[in-house]
TrEMBL record:
Record GO terms (molecular function): metal ion binding
KW tRNA processing (keyword) present: no
Species whose genome carries this gene: Halobaculum lipolyticum
Cofactor(s) named in the record: Cu cation
UniProt protein name: Plastocyanin/azurin family copper-binding protein
Domain Blue (type 1) copper as annotated: residue spans: 4-100
Length: 102
């Protein structure tokens, strides 16, 4: 997550059981917040700060923000596409994790 206000890469493909680490590389803090309505059926919700839903994550921000050199990790146990965003930069800072069956 960069000071250019983006997720690099914007789309990342992994396998079921893989863990993704998001790192803030610049000075600007970000969040990793899943779009709850768009998750695959039966998938666990994920958000930096460990919130169990999107509205809780939105309301609590800046709790859950990921600052310089901090890491948020999530392990994907369900196949499908997982769209997510950064709460303070939602207008342009969005990404997708594609989880493939292995
Ligand atoms: Cu951001």
């Amino acid at each position: 997550m960069t000071d250019g206000l983006d997720f690099e890469p914007q789309t990342l493909t992994v396998g079921v059981g893989d863990t993704v680490d998001w790192v803030t590389t610049g000075a600007v803090a970000h969040s990793v917040t899943a779009y709850e309505e768009d998750l695959p059926e039966g998938a666990a919700y994920f958000a930096s700060g460990g919130f169990d839903g999107e509205s809780a994550a939105r309301q609590a921000y800046p709790e859950g923000s990921v600052g310089r050199d901090e890491v948020y990790s999530h392990t994907f146990e369900t196949a499908g596409e997982f769209p997510y965003f950064c709460i303070p930069h939602e207008s342009g800072m969005v990404g997708t994790i594609v989880v493939e069956s292995v």
